C-alpha cells in the first residue's frame, strides 16, 4: 500500500470547479412538506471558522422516499423535490440550505428512522469525508430512532438542530474539542 501524502487530501484547492455542483435549495416551489431553512457554521477545534468546507446533504421527501433509483419503497415521488444539495461555507464558515422536512424512512431490522438529513463534510486536510446526520428538534420519533440511540445521550445534542426565530433551524459543525459533532464511520 502506498502511504497518503498531503497531495492526496481533499484540499486546499478542492473548490475549483465545484461551484457548478452547488445547490442550496433541495426543493422547488410546490414541493410537498413543511419547509425549513437551516443555517450554521463549520468551526475548527479553536472555534474558528472553516472558510472552505463543502456540506453535502441527502434526504428523503415528505413521504419518506429518497429520490434515488435504489429506493424501491411503495411511496410517492415528489417531482418538485430534489433531495440532494451541496453548499460551500463562506469566509465565516457559514452555510445555509432550504428544503422540506423529510418523512420517516425504514431503519435496520424493520425499525423506523426519525426524519433526518444525511450530511457529508469535505474540506482541506481530510483524506475522507466526515459523515453525520442532523435530526429535527422536538421530533417525537427521535426517541425511537435506532441510529440516534446509538449515540450516548449527552452527545445527541450535537446532531439535533436548534429552532430559532422565524422557523429557522440552526446547527453548527464542531470538528474537534468539547461538544465535537458526532461523526459516523460508513
Write up this protein.
It is globular, with a radius of gyration of 17 Å. The chain has 186 residues and is an all-beta fold. The protein has a single domain, classed as Protocatechuate 3,4-Dioxygenase, subunit A. It is 0% helix and 27% strand. The strands form three sheets. Strands 1, 4, 9, 10 and 11 form a five-stranded mixed beta sheet that branches. Strands 3-2-7-8 form a four-stranded antiparallel beta sheet, with no helix packed on it. Strand 7 and strand 8 form a beta hairpin.
Name of the level-1 CATH class: Mainly Beta
Biggest sheet, in brief?
Answer: 5 strands, mixed
**Overall average pLDDT:** 90
Radius of gyration: 17 Å
How helix-rich are the residues, as a percent range?
under 10%
Number of helices: 0
CATH topology: Protocatechuate 3,4-Dioxygenase, subunit A
CATH architecture: Sandwich
The amount of beta strand, in percent, is 25-35%
Name the CATH superfamily classification: Aromatic compound dioxygenase
List the domain count as a whole number. Answer: 1
Order of helices and strands: EEEEEEEEEEE
